[in-house]
Write a structure and sequence with these properties.
mainly alpha, Double Stranded RNA Binding Domain, three-stranded antiparallel beta sheet, flat
Length: 408
């Protein structure tokens, strides 16, 4: 009788193996059927949605909007390749990672030896492990300024660094407080608590002064940003919105594009305010050819344009307004005098005024006498009726001859 080895399966094992093989085939067939059903369900879902959209359009409604896929994931490692892409374009996630420690500056190097090195081992170099750490510590400096007495009795004292700006807190600490407040939106009480926990002796008022005082350099930089942006940008977008400042209603104006952003808080959103913002800090006023052409297009009288032509440049707004006021006063006095002269010429036909004019009386007396002596007597023209209670105005210069509706 032939002996059975351990490698030969028994009849029971053969049956079990055959049954497992059949089960594996059935599972594979069911998986293929499930994949086909999934494709079929997706096609049916799209067909049902298309029919719903058609029905909605027939009812006068809007169908489901077609939202395009996001373009932000294109070109990123691990993103799905576009249709028609080759196999080389399909890269796994993380295959294009950069070396994260190559650009770091190593401040300290420590050599770590194994605890036990077996005899006969061969040294094969080092295995680097880079660790980044943050050191936060208080650094207090005492500047001892030398004092020298000169032969004439005066003193010469050493100067403090310019970066201190007369403050007892260093530039790095001030920069950190500004960064925490304006960039990280940390409130002043939390900033005071934080720096005190680090060991800085500072009060809430000193933090407030650091945040609000001595910021002229930032304002100069802000104006330079807008001036440069307006000079080189092909276009700018503008917007303004209501804002509250110190309990008062105001306006926050935005000017910028994709390269720069500039904000300003003002009290108005008028056209004049916007033009003032576009001046980027300049305070002078200039009457150039473009401005004079604009005055002509606006039909400004020639006499007033001649008054403004005396000077073309003005140092600031006060000088410009003073020039406007002076021109306005000259124009008003000239017009008023011409009206009064016209009234006197027309009043010569009134007998009661003729003697006053011939005697050399002033025109004010003539106007006052004529204004009080004219009375109404059966007026026929309602436009010529004047009330005695109204003050005299030089509009009576329109009367070129005595009207039969009036008597003196």
């Amino acid at each position: 009788m032939k002996e059975r080895t351990e490698a030969d399966p028994t009849p029971t094992e053969r049956q079990l193996m055959e049954r497992c093989r059949r089960y594996e085939q059935q599972v594979q067939e069911q998986a293929n059927q499930l994949a086909d059903f999934k494709v079929l369900l997706e096609a049916q879902r799209e067909e049902i949605q298309r029919l719903k959209d058609t029905i909605a359009i027939l009812k006068g409604q809007k169908g489901r909007p077609k939202i395009k896929p996001s373009q932000l994931e294109k070109g990123k490692p691990g993103s799905a390749p576009e249709e028609g892409g080759t196999g080389s374009e399909q890269t796994r996630a993380g295959s294009a990672k950069r070396v994260k420690t190559a650009h770091l500056t190593i401040d300290q190097t420590e050599i770590l030896r194994p605890e036990q090195v077996p005899p006969g081992s061969i040294f094969k170099g080092y295995q680097d492990y880079v660790v980044q750490e943050l050191e936060v510590q208080v650094h207090t400096t005492c500047y001892r300024c030398e004092r020298w007495q000169t032969p004439d009795g005066g003193y010469v004292v050493g100067r403090l660094p310019v970066a201190l700006q007369g403050s007892h807190f260093g530039p790095r600490l001030r920069s950190y407080i500004l960064y925490q407040y304006y960039h990280q939106h940390v409130t002043q009480p939390l900033i005071v608590e934080q720096v005190r926990e680090l060991g800085i002796d500072i009060s809430g008022g000193q933090v407030n002064r650091i945040l609000t005082e001595g910021k002229d350099a930032f304002h100069v930089e802000k104006e330079a940003i807008l001036r440069t942006g307006l000079a080189v940008a092909p276009y700018v977008s503008v917007d303004d919105t209501a804002a509250r400042h110190q309990g008062q209603n105001g306006v926050c104006t935005y000017i910028g594009n994709e390269f720069f952003t500039w904000f300003a808080s003002t009290e108005s959103k008028s056209r004049r305010n916007f033009l003032d913002l576009l001046r980027t800090g300049h305070t002078d006023y200039v009457l150039n050819e473009a401005a004079r052409e604009y005055l002509v297009r606006q039909k400004l009288p020639k006499a007033q344009r001649q008054l403004l032509a005396e000077e073309g440049a003005f140092a600031d707004q006060a000088h410009w307004e003073a020039q406007l006021f002076s021109a306005m006063m000259r124009a008003s006095l000239t017009s008023y005098a011409m009206r009064c002269v016209g009234f006197m010429l027309s009043a010569r036909s009134i007998p009661s005024c003729r003697s006053a004019l011939n005697s050399g009386a002033r025109w004010r007396q003539c106007v006052g006498r004529s204004g009080t002596s004219i009375k109404r007597s059966k007026p026929t023209n309602r436009r010529l009726v004047r009330s005695r209670r109204r003050s005299w105005r030089p509009t009576l210069m329109k009367f070129s001859r005595p009207s039969p509706a009036f008597r003196v």
